[in-house]
Amino acid sequence: MSYHLAQVQAGITKLFPARAQGPKMIDEDRSEEISSDERRQYDRSRVIVDLHFDGGDATGVASTKDISMGGLYMSTQADIPVGETLALRIPLAGQHVVIKGDVVYSNPGHGVGVRFHRLPNETRELMERELPHP
Predict the structure, then answer these.
(1) pLDDT of 45
(2) How far lies 81's CA from each of 20, 57, 128, 131, in Å?
(3) Is residue 107 a contact partner of residue 62, using CB atoms and an 8 Å limit?
(4) Can you give the pLDDT at residue 56?
(5) Which residues in the chain show pLDDT less than 50?
(6) CATH topology for 42-130?
(7) Looking at residue 82, what is its pLDDT?
(8) DSSP code string of 9-43
């Protein structure tokens, strides 16, 4: 029994109607098309300070690369997985603020991106006042 390509395609269309529209192209790297406003809610300020972090199996001191009202990137050789919740103790304006956040990006051996949990009003006001504006 021999089938022609048209018959095979008709059979596939009957069994899988979504495929009748043809293959869908997936754009995996849209980073150039997506504006920074869409990627992050807050602008980052280049602030380099040493902070203390604690969470899960990871505890230590790291250096920030940048900080925003929504989170920060910290350089660390610790392997901290995405989804881990950390308590961060950050020196700011002559005092230390403690902020909890979730790891949303991990580059093992280099650093992690952390998104802050809801900031207490005092901490938010201090950060707004003390962080340089990008």
Answers:
(1) 67
(2) 40, 10, 29, 27
(3) no
(4) 79
(5) 1-6, 8-9, 11-13, 15-39
(6) Thrombin, subunit H (2.40.10)
(7) 95
(8) HHHHHHH-GGGGG-PPP-----TTTS-HHHH-SS-
pLDDT of residue 38: 38
Q: Which two three-digit tokens encode residue 99?
A: 């902020």
In degrees, rounded to 5, the angle at the alpha carbon of residue 52 between the alpha carbons of residues 86 and 81 is 35
Residue 54: both structure tokens together: 């604690």
- For 86, the token pair is 């950390």
Do residues 112 and 129 touch, judged by C-beta distance below 8 A?
no
**Cα gap 12→18, rounded to integer Å:** 10
Q: Which amino acid is at 76?
A: T
Encoded amino acid at 112, one letter: V
Q: Where are the domains of the chain?
A: 42-130
The structure tokens listed for 111 are: 């650093």
